[in-house]
Amino acid sequence: MELYNADCREILTTLSGIDAVVCDPPYGLSFASRVWDHFVPSVEYWQAVYNAIKPGAHMLVFGGGRTYHRLVCAIEDAGFEIRDQLGWIYGTGFPKSLDISKAISKQGDIDGVEKWRGWGTALKPAHEPICLARRPLGESTVAKNVLEHSTGGINIDGCRVGSEGQRGRYPANIIHDGGEDVLNVFPVNSGSGKVTNKRKTHQSFGRNGTFKQRAHETDYSWSGSSMGTTSRFFYCTKASPAERDNSTHPTIKPIALMRYLVKLITPPNGVVLDPFMGSGSTLIAAHYEGFDSIGIEIDNDNFAEAKGRIDRATKQSVMKF
Whole-prediction pTM value? Predict the structure, then answer.
């Protein structure tokens, strides 16, 4: 494992032969007034990533709902193929909306208060898009590229959704946090049987990469020819207080989610790159999945926090400058 406290553009010029990229770059939303979130990485950044990875290597990049188009255009303009868009759906999220009636009231316009009561300026955030991109193949076919570079495919069977010991469902481009608010959105499967509202267990990734059962107090169970709801894609816990490890980073991602994404696109014995390391979740996830990794973070405070989290999680990280 290698960690760099530097501008990723400088470090990327020294790297080559990277197998996969999983990262959560700035969204350009000035989140929590953080300086590092004032921009969306431009073509220059993704060209540097492009040159550091193998032909056929995949990349998973989180984006913001309002600025995702800028992110994806920059990635595509850097030479990548846009392969898909994954959606991470979550039940938590605080709406950052202006109460228009209260704003009018502060201006002293009493007549306008009632007319615009209940109006705001934003919806509650409940999903983040994830761009799945790939550097073009270096060989004429995927089969030849995989044999030559070990890159070009995604780990379907390794990321199937289901209980341990079962083959599981084909991985989809929807991922959710398993929260009650999200599960209740999905309809119950059609078929003969009876719908009951009772405690039911769901699957999530355990620390060793296997699925484990997790309970929800209220959810739909289906007794009959079909069982459960259509929410059976992938269940990912929210970042727990223990998982946050006293992190102050405002956009920390759950380790289980990052483990799934790392496992999805990294070939056996591959190296995972995160050029926007943040709090270090990608590198911790890579360690748990048995992959080597490289993390780059320009912000000094974020780097120190990531270094501490990674050290505690792995006890064997190597810091480079």
Answer: 0.79
